[in-house]
Write a structure and sequence with these properties.
By secondary structure, the protein is mainly alpha-helical. It has one domain. The chain has 6 helices and no strands. The model has no long low-confidence stretch (mean pLDDT 95).
Length: 158
């Protein structure tokens, strides 16, 4: 019988957390690119109702990815927390978190505007959804995630 040790469990949890982040990115990609096609305030409000699912996935996933990643590095005989690719991963993780925070704040502001009872806000909401700011932040987020995946898979300098 094959015994699964502590390291294997931590690696499995680390990967599951990374999949949660990837799932949230897919959901947010759908929301960002569909948001650009919205034509009414009601459509926009419906779109924003789905966003909390992604927020939970990405928040929990990011926290657990770094937690299990550090545990893996500290528990391993071959990996050290000061390995270049691990430090690179931590830096990319921090960049991902910051760009994600900015992207989230941008869309949260739009959501608050869409849900306000102020008359005449529809044009502003739709214009902000179609502005390049949100898409640019989201594309940068995806690029950082891809760099993180490359770093974790190929472990440059290891």
């Amino acid at each position: 019988m094959l015994a699964i040790g502590f390291y294997e469990w931590m690696l499995a949890f680390h990967l599951l957390a990374a999949f949660a982040v990837a799932s949230a990115l897919v959901l947010f990609s759908v929301l960002v690119f569909n948001g650009r096609r919205m034509t009414t305030l009601e459509q926009t409000r419906t779109l924003f109702r789905v966003a909390p699912v992604g927020s939970v996935l990405i928040g929990a996933g990011l926290g657990l990815v770094i937690l299990f990643g550090v545990i893996l590095a500290l528990d391993s005989d071959t990996l050290k927390i000061w390995n270049g690719w691990i430090i690179g991963g931590i830096v990319l993780w921090a960049a991902f978190a910051e760009v994600g925070r900015r992207s989230g704040a941008y869309y949260t502001d739009i959501q608050k505007l869409a849900e306000s009872s102020d008359e005449g806000k529809e044009a502003e909401v739709l214009a902000r959804l179609q502005a390049p700011t949100g898409v640019t932040l989201h594309l940068v987020l995806i690029a950082i995630f891809v760099l993180l995946l490359i770093d974790m898979i190929y472990k440059p300098g290891a």
